[in-house]
Write a structure and sequence with these properties.
Layout lengths: L6 E4 L9 H18 L1 H6 L2 H14 L7 H16 L6 H12 L8 H9 L4 E5 L5 H4 L7 E4 H4 L6 H11 L6 E5 L2 H10 L3 E5 L20 E3 L2 H10 L1 H5 L3
Parallel strand pairs: 1-2, 1-4, 2-3, 4-5, 5-6
Helix pairs in contact: 1-5, 3-4, 4-5, 6-11
The structure holds magnesium ion.
């Protein structure tokens, strides 16, 4: 397949680092914080109940689907209120959670691959999550970070892809969006007129997913960011847009 790539937009969670271990740890940090600063709330809201409340808050506030930060703050306020603690604790509790949420462990190939890609093409981070790349120490490889919270709509909404292309100054058809999620990343990017690269990393069992649709395929499928950097190296004409 031949197509020009002048810029890359990149998903973060499960594309640059695995998100599940980060969330498990961040929730534990939050639970520890609550035990220390608001023991009544900690007692009343063990982890499974806290998770149920987060899901309930998300269901009650579909208009906040793009804003995980706000959803979590609402859940925290409700936890403190129901336990008879000061709801103003929601903010420092969130800060403790968020600091841990930004302590990610990258996939082994991520950093080198991002450096290689950033040396050739402008990269922009495009995420529905609320990771802070400055805190994570990765901002230097990206032109900018556009999050669903800041934009007001989440992937797969076309507007967030178009906003990123506009900021990059590159037409959607010459931007390659890279991500792990079939709906949010691949189909969202495709519908918005971008090229789509599916990151299909093997699971812990060594098995990759199979593409589930016959009618539409990603423009590119790779098992890692390193493989994408290799592909870009092997297709310099496509990088220059003269393919
Ligand atoms: Mg992802």
């Amino acid at each position: 397949m031949s197509f020009p790539v002048r810029a890359i937009t990149l998903d973060l969670d499960d594309t640059v680092w695995p998100i599940a271990p980060v969330m498990v740890r961040a929730e534990r940090v939050l639970a520890d914080w609550l035990r220390e600063h608001a023991p009544r709330t900690a007692e009343r809201w063990p982890l499974p109940k806290m998770r149920e409340l987060r899901d309930a808050v998300a269901a009650e506030h579909p208009h906040l689907a793009h804003d995980f930060t706000r959803q979590r703050l609402i859940a925290l306020e409700r936890m403190f209120e129901e336990a008879g603690d000061d709801v103003a604790l929601a903010e420092p509790a969130f800060d403790a959670f968020f600091a841990a949420r930004c302590e990610v462990e990258h996939y082994a190939d991520s950093l080198e691959a991002l450096d290689r890609m950033a040396a050739k093409l402008p990269l922009a981070a495009l995420s529905n999550g609320n990771a802070d790349l400055s805190r994570i120490g990765l901002m230097h490889v990206f032109r900018f970070q556009l999050g669903a919270r800041e934009h007001g709509r989440a992937k797969p909404d076309a507007s967030i892809f178009h906003a990123a292309c506009e900021r990059l100054g590159v037409a959607p058809g010459k931007v390659l969006h890279v991500g792990d999620d079939i709906e949010m990343d691949v189909l969202g990017a495709h519908r918005a007129g971008l090229r789509a690269c599916w990151i299909n990393r093997a699971g812990d069992d060594g098995v990759s997913r199979s593409w589930p649709r016959d009618d539409l395929r990603p423009d590119l499928e790779v098992p890692s960011l390193a493989a994408l950097a290799d592909w870009l190296d092997a297709h310099p004409d496509q990088r220059q847009g003269v393919a």
